[in-house]
Amino acid sequence: MMARQPPARMGRQFFGRFRPFELVQLPEFLPAQAPATPHRLELLGPAMQKRNFTNRRLKVKCACMVERPLWNERLVAAWKQASIVWLTGPRRVGKTVLARSVPNTEFLNCDLPSVAERLRDPESFFRSVKQRFVVFDEVHQLPDPSRLLKIGADGFPKLKILATGSSTLAATQKFRDSLTGRKRVVEFVPVLHEELPAFGIADVRERLLRGGLPPALLAAEHNPEFYGEWLDSYFARDVQELFRLEKRTGFLRLLELLLRQSGGMLDVTKLAAECQISRPTVTNWLEVYQITHVAHLVRPFSADGRREIVAQPRVFGFDTGLVCHARGWDHLRTEDCGVLWEHLVLDSLIAAGASRIHFWRDKQQREVDFVVPRSRDAVDAIECKWKPDAFETRGLQAFRQQYPRGKNYVVSPLNGPGYERIQSGLKTVFLAPGELRRALA
Questions:
Q1: I need a labelling partner for 192 at 20 to 30 A (CA). Which of 67, 71, 169, 210 fits?
Q2: Does domain 69-187 fall into CATH 3.40.50.300?
Q3: Nearest Cα residue to 367 out of 424, 315, 436, 300
């Protein structure tokens, strides 16, 4: 990846001085000079580190936009495979800002009635486009979005289309066509560990407490009211509009319980009893949470018909800030950081485009935090450790007795490069989430 520099201004030229956007020349989409990173800041004293990050954070807040080059790489890679990219992710995660950063773009906010009127005749619209890229922000607001996107892909194959939304395409009946073969999906997650320097965040614990939604992360101080407002907006804009649900109190109550137990095992019967709703209702609402990306279910891994594992999935809330808000945490203790750290590692796995993410646990309670199958016979094992020295091989040894092929990773908030270590006969790579993402991509 080429180096980058802090943003100087807003607009389509945000990432630097662009030449025409060429899919075959990915480096031209990236900025030219790197900002200070933890590696470079190690050379500075603590006072200078703090001042450097404080000054950069002020600049970031003034610019309102932060460079997200790895996500631009994901868009480029997806456009090489299909003419439509569906950029999806939770509300306020930064989809619109990312979409506006693409150069040479015709940007349309589909919330506006004037835009809907302009798109009534899709063929005429696409003929009028002079840019190489078209962005349909909040495309699900249109009466027939799938028809519009299909006409664009089939009738104007040289045009590259970016459509954004806070849910999967299956969330609304407006998408009568799944656009099979015409689209690629990029799931946008909250700010990653490797992106913290660009956001002016020196202490990863601040990311754990505030979460990774840019408005909360860049605020002058921690503001618990943000999370309540986010939940209200989520229900009104994503849930009611797409699913027509009316039981607001029960729906948000169940979501609060899921956030409180985030990272733990999912018990549908217990949740139904605590919320005083039926099991089928819990199951239906869980699907809504997943479709709108506010919860991830990580299912247990097994192969070849083995039954050494428990059957329940684990459930993760999408943002550590909301998890802390639901638990009533206004500051973090050391023991809180471990389970929250797992959420950041999961975000990096999603950002890597891993199509299958599981965990492993046997009936003796030996476990591996995440496992990612790479082929029929090989599966990578990933352990999440807030402090790498706390790593123990018990679970990994048991897993490798069943599944001997694959790589072993321990993911920690390291400031320096990764390293290898052999423990109990197992070669394990210790690394930061960004290195893991690149290893799996």
A1: 169
A2: yes
A3: 300
